[in-house]
Design goal:
- There is one protein chain.
- By secondary structure, the chain is an alpha+beta fold.
- It is built from 5 helices and 16 strands.
- Strands 1, 3, 4, 5, 6, 7, 8, 9, 10, 11, 12, 14, 15 and 16 form a 14-stranded mixed β-sheet that branches. A two-stranded antiparallel ribbon has the order 2-13.
- A hairpin with a 3-residue loop joins β6 and β7.
- The longest helix has 45 residues.
- 20% of the residues are buried.
C-alpha cells in the first residue's frame, strides 16, 4: 500500500472517530439536560405537595407519529370459531356480515363486531377473573395477540359484566382503539374490536417528560396523580396519523387529561 492510500484511510478513520465523538458528547449532554429538567420538575412538584402514585420508571425519550392500516383478519377462521359452521357472508358495500342462529359477525374497515352465545353465563358473570381469562382466549382466537391489548376497566352492573381494553404499540397505548366486551344474563356475548394495526412509525422527535408536563399543567397544591400513561391519539379529525400524548388522571376527577407529548399543549376534548 502506498503512502497516499494509507493517508486517505487515516483521514477517513479520523473523520469517523470525530463524528462519533461529537455524537456521543451531544447525546450525553442531551441526556444530562433531560435528567436535570426532570429533577427540577420533581422538586417543584414536591414543593407543591403533589403526590405521584403513578409509575414513571419506563417512559420514552423520543417518539414519532404513527399511521394505521386495516388488519388482515381470517374471516373463514373467525366465522367457524363463532358460528360453528360454514356460512356464506352478505356484503352491504360497507361491511361483510355473517349470521347464524342468533350469532353474528360484522366486519367493516374500522371494526369487527361479534354477537355470540355463551353457555355458562351465570358462572362467568359472577367470576370477573374467569370472564377476563375467557375473553383473552376468545380474542386471541380471532387473530389478536394478548401482548397487544391492555385491560382498562372491569365493570359489573346488575346481570351484566363488561370489560374494556386498549390496543398497544410497543407498550404505548392507542387511546382511540378500544376493545369492548360484555356478557348479559341471557348469555349474549358482545364484542367490538378495532380492525386497524400500526403500519408505520415516523421519524421520532423528543418527548416532553411526564414530570415537565405535570409542572406545565399547573395542578392545585396537594393534588394526587393517580396514573400517567404514554400513548398515541388522533388530535385532528380525518388526520391519517396519531400523535404521541400523555394521559394523566388526577384523584377526584372523573375524566383524564391529555397532553401533546411533543409540545406540552393540553388537548381539548
Amino acid at each position: 500500500m502506498d503512502w497516499a492510500k494509507a493517508k486517505t484511510i487515516l483521514i477517513v478513520i479520523l473523520l469517523f472517530l470525530n463524528g462519533f465523538l461529537f455524537y456521543t458528547i451531544i447525546n450525553a449532554n442531551s441526556n444530562n439536560k433531560a435528567t436535570d429538567y426532570n429533577r427540577l420538575a420533581l422538586e417543584y412538584l414536591n414543593s407543591r405537595n403533589i403526590v405521584l402514585k403513578a409509575d414513571f420508571s419506563d417512559v420514552p425519550a423520543t417518539a414519532g407519529r404513527i399511521e394505521y392500516e386495516t388488519r388482515n383478519l381470517d374471516l373463514n377462521r373467525i366465522s367457524m370459531s363463532v358460528l360453528k359452521t360454514k356460512i356464506n357472508p352478505v356484503s352491504t358495500g360497507d361491511s361483510i356480515i355473517y349470521t347464524h342462529e342468533g350469532r353474528s359477525i360484522e366486519l367493516t374497515d374500522e371494526e369487527l363486531i361479534i354477537k355470540d352465545r355463551i353457555n355458562d353465563e351465570n358462572d362467568l358473570i359472577n367470576d370477573q377473573d374467569r370472564f377476563l381469562q375467557m375473553i383473552y382466549t376468545y380474542i386471541t382466537g380471532l387473530g389478536y395477540s394478548k401482548d397487544e391489548i391492555s385491560l382498562e376497566y372491569q365493570k359489573k352492573s346488575g346481570e351484566e359484566i363488561e370489560l374494556g381494553f386498549l390496543l398497544k404499540y410497543k407498550d404505548a397505548l392507542l387511546f382511540d382503539h378500544e376493545i369492548k366486551a360484555s356478557l348479559d344474563k341471557s348469555g349474549m356475548l358482545s364484542l367490538v374490536l378495532p380492525n386497524k394495526k400500526v403500519k408505520r412509525h415516523k421519524v421520532p422527535t423528543e418527548v416532553i417528560s411526564a414530570y415537565q408536563i405535570l409542572v406545565m399543567a399547573g395542578l392545585p397544591e396537594g393534588s394526587v396523580v393517580e396514573s400517567v400513561d404514554f400513548g398515541y391519539r388522533q388530535l385532528v379529525e380525518d388526520e391519517f396519523y396519531d400523535t404521541p400524548v400523555w394521559r394523566i388522571l388526577i384523584e377526584g376527577c372523573e375524566r383524564p387529561i391529555f397532553y401533546n407529548a411533543c409540545t406540552g399543549e393540553k388537548i381539548k376534548d
